[in-house]
Each structure stands twice: as C-alpha cells, then as structure tokens.
Amino acid sequence: MKFLRLMVLLVMLSTLGVVFAEINPEWSIKFGENFFDYHISTTSNGSYIVVGGNSYLDNNQKKMNILVYLIDNKGKILWNRTIATSATDSFGMEDVKISKNGNYIVAVVDCSNGRGIYKQYVFILDKNGTILKKHNIKNGMPYLFVSEDGKYIFVGVKDKVYLIDRDNGISWIYETNGDITSMDMAKNNICVVGDEDGYVYLYNTSGLIWSYQTNESIGYVSIHPNGEVIGVCGYNNTIYLLNPNGRLIKESHIHTGDDWIVFFKITNKSNILIGCSMGCLYCLGKNLQPLWKIEISKLYDKICITPDGRYIALVNNFGDFPFLYGNKGLYVLNEHGKVLWRYSKGYIHDIKITDDGKYVVAVINDDLYLFDNQKCIKNYNPEALDYSEDVKLIIHITAIILVVLILSLILVLYLIKLENKKKQQK
C-alpha cells in the first residue's frame, strides 16, 4: 500500500509541470514523417491555410510526390493534390502562396528526372485544386509574391524577374545586374528587388520603373504596404530609405556587433523591424531612430509580422542552457516588443501570422498547429509557463531516478528475503 501511494505521488509530481500549460492550439494536423519540406501560407483573415511539401513514393526514397493541401481554419482538410512527381535529388516544393482573397494558389517546384536534368515550374491552381497553368522558369532559389486577387505573380530567380499574368501567362522578364538577394511586394502590385551587386529595382505590372545603386551588396529590401517608402538593408548594415520615385530620403548605419541581420521589414506605420541571428530584435522609427530593442536568444529567419506591425511572431528553437530551455519556443510580441504569449513545445519549422493578427499558424515537429492569437494573449501567464517548462523537466528526470531507485530497492529487498527464506529451509 505504501508503495502504491508513493507511485501515485511520483505520477502527480511528474505531471505538475503541465498544470500551468494554458497555451494550447485550437487544433493540429499530423502529416507524418513521410511528408517533409513544409511551406505554409494563409489568407488575410486565416480562413484558408495552404501547405506545400514533398512525400516519398516508396521506402527507397528515390522518388517523391510534390503536394499541395488546402485546409480551413477549423482544421478540416478540404483537398490535397499531387501537382508533380520528381526524383529526390531535387528540392521539390520550393514555395507556395495563397492569394489574400483565397481564390488562387501558386506553387514553385523544382523537378528532376534523376539523371541530372532539373526543371523549375510555377503552378497556378484555383481554390478547388484544379491546375490552371504551368510555366517553366529558370532554375534557382525562388522569391515568390502573389497579388491580393491572384491576378499577378512576381517571381525572382537568379538574375531574372518574372511577371506572370494568371490568365495570359508570362508578361515580361527582366534581367538584374547581379543575382537577386531579396524581394518584397506592396498592395498596389509594385515589387521591389535587391541584388548582390548593390542595385535596387522597382517594378510594376508594366515593367521596370527605376533602379538605384548603393555601394554594397543588398541584404534585404522591404516596401511599405501601400508603396509609400522603400527600405533597403545592405550587407554592411547600412539602412537606406527611398521614396516611390527612387530618391534617397535617409541613410544610416545600424550597429549589431558581430551579429548579422536575418530579417528586415517595414510596417504600414513606416517603422522598421530588424531581426539579428543571435537574438536581438530592433525597431526603428520612420526617421531610423531607435524605438526599442529586445533579446530572445537565437532568432534565425523565422520571423513574421502583421502589416500594421501590431503583432510580431518569431521562433527560438534553441534554449540558453543544455537542459533548461527557458527561452525556447514560439513567441508573439506586440508593437512595443512586449511578449504577449509563448508556446514552447517541439521544434518549430515555420510560422505565419494572418494579416489581421487573429491566427498564428505553425509547423511544429511533423504537425500543423493553429493558435487563436487573442485567446492565447488572454490565457498567457509568463511566470507559470516559465516555471512549468523548466521545473517539469527537472521533476520528470527526478521522478524517473526515484522510480529506478525504488524498483532497485524492491528488487534488493526481495532478493534478501529470498536468501533468508533459503537459509531457514536449510
């Protein structure tokens, strides 16, 4: 009886850490280990989520299907389509986007015949999963942007910029001076491009509007959601602000030490959010003055932001200590850098936040999760959550050790009792 009570106590202790886990997804979908290289995109209000990825055809893992899933915000898979098949020496799914109105899906895929021939395609699908068009483009890492109604598609690959009209095919192709390093798109179908030779280009659906040359390779470009200002971040951490006519408004250098910039985005308030690889997140005002700075361990490039800058979602997959992952997880911050909530379970591959800030979608381990942002903000208790995540691991390890010790003690006592019994029989 005493042993039973002790075991119950251990179970209670080992589950103590989850008592405070108040942040939970609305739902999750498991795709399984056979599905890999996830890419996700959402509509403006999160009514639809598109997931693109690859799936092995057999156990030999030499061929794969390239698939697209459409899921609603209740977690129901509406359909899935295999849009191509390829040998596994290609990247397969490179990127996928759904138009803001949810009517069209665009995917860029890299295909191989397994004998050294590679081709890259842009697929256009309607919301029912029907493939409308397929266009061959140059091979390379693509930058993909889709207009809100799905009419226009900008793709940058190597030193080529494509405009694809959904109904009429490829409208034009422009060549940049160097390979493309960054792209961004505004609501009015204006696209900004940066290249490794230090050039910035602005395009609309008719073609090139202007180009601007800097003195350094371009790391990132970003355009105000309404096209009011263009931001440029050079590899030497020089920030340039250009007006819609391509004239320099402001130039400043940001000091990040040995850290490097991995995220650069202008909000519709003309503030600039800058993320660095070792965990510093900066917010600059429209005159490039510092507004705030926070540190959350390593960020890498998994950061996204609502157009108004009200919510920032970011990922830290690495804790500060080898056993206590106190800073690990998915974070959502407000526009002042305050942590609104955190979810710290699993390895996070990708995240998206809807334009209205209502939902956060994440690929965690092999599952797709949807979080209600407002519900998570309401339920978040930072002290309880931090306590539970750290202490839960300690308690679980302690419980395992105690169970092993108790079982060992029981075994020793049993053997002693058995030995005494044998002696009495003699």
From TrEMBL:
UniProt KW keywords: Membrane, Transmembrane, Transmembrane helix
SUPFAM superfamilies: Quinoprotein alcohol dehydrogenase-like, YVTN repeat-like/Quinoprotein amine dehydrogenase
Protein source organism: Methanocaldococcus bathoardescens
Record field: transmembrane: 393-416
Key word Transmembrane present: yes
The protein's name: WD40-domain containing protein
Domain of life: Archaea
Taxonomic lineage of the native organism: Archaea, Methanobacteriati, Methanobacteriota, Methanomada group, Methanococci
